[in-house]
């Protein structure tokens, strides 16, 4: 099975996207704004250069809200089981998403994620590694320290996961998305320090 590979020349800014990418972004934004009734604060994502967008994970709506509120391409770390869905894989490939195992030990996936950052693009992550999980994936600290990228904290309020993904997408929840001030870490920072600061920054956005 082949996996998504972020291209070195993958388009970053919205004006550089293909017609299909712009159309898909428009649909996601319209669904989020008009069907879900979502609101979001202005994104604090840098206009260019490498960045990690770190957000809490409360439902399958989360990546859609992050995409809708930004005009840069976001390559998400995606659980392998979602990438294995044949109908969903082409959509994930459009944004160069990276399939990873949930055990946090997928070295190949982490290396591809680091390459996205080294190429100057945006990587979207959910530190818990799954919806409403309490653990934090240690690989995130490795990505931060290895790339030197700014970390933009974000928090979604007012959304929750239903009994199925489909029910969650169909239920109108009126979520709110907040963005925090970008964080910058020294390459010598301890992993625990990096993870703690990121999770604390996300928590303060409640």
Structure write-up:
It is a single chain. The protein contains eight helices and seven strands. With 206 residues, it is an alpha/beta fold. The protein has one domain. The protein has a seven-stranded mixed sheet with strand order 1-7-6-2-5-3-4, with helices on both faces. The chain is globular. The N and C termini lie far apart (40 Å). The relative contact order is 0.20. Mean pLDDT is 88; it is low at 1-8.
Short description:
This protein has 206 residues and is of the alpha/beta class. The protein has helices at 19-35, 62-68, 80-83, 89-94, 107-118, 139-147, 165-170, 191-203, and strands at residues 39-40, 51-55, 74-79, 98-100, 122-125, 150-157, 176-179. It contains eight helices and seven strands.
Biggest sheet details = 7 strands, mixed
Work out the strand percent. 15-25%
* Oligomer state of the chains in this structure: single chain
Helix content: 25-40%
Strand arrangement, largest sheet?
A: 1-7-6-2-5-3-4
| Backbone CA Rg | 16 Å
Organism: Acidithiobacillus sulfuriphilus
Pathway: Lipid metabolism
Protein name: 1-acyl-sn-glycerol-3-phosphate acyltransferase
Domain Phospholipid/glycerol acyltransferase: 51-159
């Amino acid at each position: 099975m082949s996996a998504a590979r972020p291209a070195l020349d993958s388009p970053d800014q919205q004006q550089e996207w293909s017609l299909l990418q712009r159309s898909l972004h428009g649909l996601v934004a319209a669904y989020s704004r008009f069907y879900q009734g979502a609101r979001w604060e202005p994104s604090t994502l840098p206009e260019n250069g490498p960045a990690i967008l770190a957000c809490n994970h409360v439902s399958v709506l989360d990546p859609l809200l992050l995409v809708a509120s930004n005009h840069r391409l976001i390559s998400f770390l995606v659980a392998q089981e979602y990438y294995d869905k044949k109908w969903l894989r082409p959509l994930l490939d459009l944004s160069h998403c990276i399939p990873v195992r949930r055990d946090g030990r997928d070295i190949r996936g982490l290396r591809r994620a680091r390459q996205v950052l080294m190429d100057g693009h945006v990587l979207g992550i959910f530190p818990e590694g799954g919806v409403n999980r309490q653990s934090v994936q240690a690989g995130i600290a490795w990505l931060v320290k290895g790339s030197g990228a700014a970390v933009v904290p974000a928090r979604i309020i007012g959304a929750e996961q239903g009994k199925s993904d489909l029910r969650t997408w169909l239920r109108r929840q009126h979520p709110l998305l907040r963005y925090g001030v970008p964080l910058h870490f020294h390459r010598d920072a301890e992993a625990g320090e990096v993870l703690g600061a990121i999770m604390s920054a996300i928590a303060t956005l409640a």
